[in-house]
Specification:
With about 400 residues, this protein is mainly β. It is built from four helices and 21 strands. It holds the Pfam family Neprosin_AP.
Length: about 400
């Protein structure tokens, strides 16, 4: 009897999913004209370069492609770009802090599992599927992980719980670094996303907003699942017509052979238990003007955003915290750990060791007098006080909120 009931439940679940998918426009054969289908196939050929080696990691496929033939160089502004293999210099003080034990959290062992790396001269690029592109064409395409700089005018609702730092000087900011606590949020649904990020922003007119973002996200629309993933994005118009996450469009130059953007984070913090996090670093090379991304306690190089991508710098704001997105009048997803900041250490999501690179190329703590808190829906998500616990923890704050907030 138990087996029969179990089978019936599975059949009902399967029928429900089958009925649900077409309404979201996610089937690879749904709502596509012949021209649209041909256009998607053309995009797939452009994005998925010939692979010298293929690596399968947690269900994802990574193609090891020639470093000089990666998707980045399909961007019109990068046709004559000369690849840079390492920065010419690093910000002063970048390696001075001890970030390996931030707030009793452990810096995650990052990269592809089982020591998988691409051969010399190639880099791992996450393979884009037809369903990936179709999801991005649906009504959920506006679920972009932008900071709270302009109001979105569509049916996608977004909320933020962040600290916003504004430069006191016209020269702005030339980098950021932070430890971001990482959690799993398997309850995030197809119509939602939840991200914990740091953003570099120039707050100008809507069609001139340049952004770089780095952190982690749970975004079924972007990745087709609800795994927690390293994510990084860019845009020059607040995601109206340009930019994307990771390497799903030309722009970011991948250099690491083992650390691809978009990989699923293997170790996640648990409520009241062991804590893990990502140490992120973004800074501008003062010579090439390229924007470099490093990750982990050992500051491992991932790649860079070429200076040619951007149109209106300097970045005059830096944002830290969480953002969520969901369909209008639907349930709200969790943010951070899924708990309010007041619960504190080992229970609420935190961002700590928050620093920035000034235009003299020196790292320094981000002080409270340049910051202002912003919580767009405080009853559901908010940021806690910004404070410095001690030299080991650095400047820090807690943020977030639960799912299904009324």
């Amino acid at each position: 009897m138990y087996v029969i009931v179990k089978v019936l439940k599975m059949m009902l679940l399967f029928i429900f999913v089958c009925l649900l998918l077409p309404s979201f426009g996610l089937s690879s054969e749904n709502n596509l004209t012949i021209d649209e289908d041909l256009e998607i196939e053309r995009q797939l050929k452009l994005l998925n370069k010939p692979a010298i080696k293929t690596i399968v990691d947690d269900g994802d496929i990574y193609d090891c492609v020639d470093i000089y033939k990666q998707p980045a160089f399909d961007h019109p502004s990068l046709k004559n770009h000369k690849i840079q293999l390492r920065p010419n210099s690093y910000p002063d003080g970048l390696f001075d802090d001890d970030i390996s034990s931030s707030t009793n959290g452990t810096s995650i062992e990052i990269g592809l599992k089982d020591g998988n790396t691409c051969p010399s001269g190639t880099v791992p690029i996450r393979r884009v599927s037809k369903d990936d592109l179709i999801r991005m064409r649906t009504s959920f395409k506006d679920m972009k992980m932008n900071p709270p700089v302009k109001n979105d005018k569509n049916h996608i609702q977004k909320q933020w719980a962040v600290y916003i730092g504004r430069s006191k000087k016209p020269s702005g900011f030339s980098g950021v670094s932070a430890f971001i606590n990482v959690y799993g949020l398997p309850q995030v649904m197809l119509t939602q996303f939840s991200s914990s990020l740091a953003w570099l922003v120039n707050n100008l007119k809507e069609d001139q907003i340049n952004i770089i973002s780095v952190g982690w996200t749970v975004s079924p629309v972007t990745y087709g699942d609800n795994k927690t993933r390293l994510t990084a994005g860019w845009t020059i118009d607040n995601y109206q017509k340009t930019g994307c996450q990771d390497t799903s469009c030309p722009g970011f130059v991948q250099l690491s052979k083992k650390l691809p953007l978009g990989f699923a984070v293997k170790r996640l913090s648990t409520y009241g238990g062991k804590q893990y996090g990502l140490n992120i670093i973004v800074f501008k090379d003062p010579d090439s003007k390229n924007w470099w991304l490093f990750l982990g306690k050992d500051r491992e190089l991932i790649g860079y955003w070429p200076n040619e991508l951007f149109t209106a710098l300097p970045f005059n704001q830096i944002h830290f915290g969480g953002t969520v997105g969901y369909i209008e009048n639907s349930k709200k997803p969790p943010m951070g750990s899924g708990h309010f900041p007041i619960e504190g250490i080992h229970k609420s999501c935190l961002i700590s060791n928050i620093r920035y690179a000034n235009m003299e190329n020196k790292m320094q703590d981000l002080e409270l007098d340049v910051l202002s808190p912003y919580s767009s829906l405080r009853k559901c998500y908010y940021v806690g006080p910004y404070f410095k616990e001690n030299d080991q923890y650095g400047n820090m704050f807690f943020f977030g909120g639960p799912e299904n907030c009324p």
